[in-house]
């Protein structure tokens, strides 16, 4: 599997946000990464509503 086609800055931001090592972010399947990003987005939306 080839690494994700994202910038270094994006990878660092995702690593911090998801609390996952940078290497794992770069080799994470795209559909799993998108799912995790959606979960984070939903959590942030619910925090804003409270």
Automatic annotation (TrEMBL):
A Pfam family that the UniProt record links to this protein: YycC
InterPro entries: YycC (IPR025550)
Protein name: YycC family protein
């Amino acid at each position: 599997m080839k690494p994700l086609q994202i910038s270094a800055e994006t990878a660092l931001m995702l690593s911090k946000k998801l609390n996952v090592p940078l290497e794992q972010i770069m080799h994470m399947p795209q559909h799993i990464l998108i799912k995790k990003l959606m979960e984070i987005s939903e959590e942030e939306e619910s925090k804003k509503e409270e």
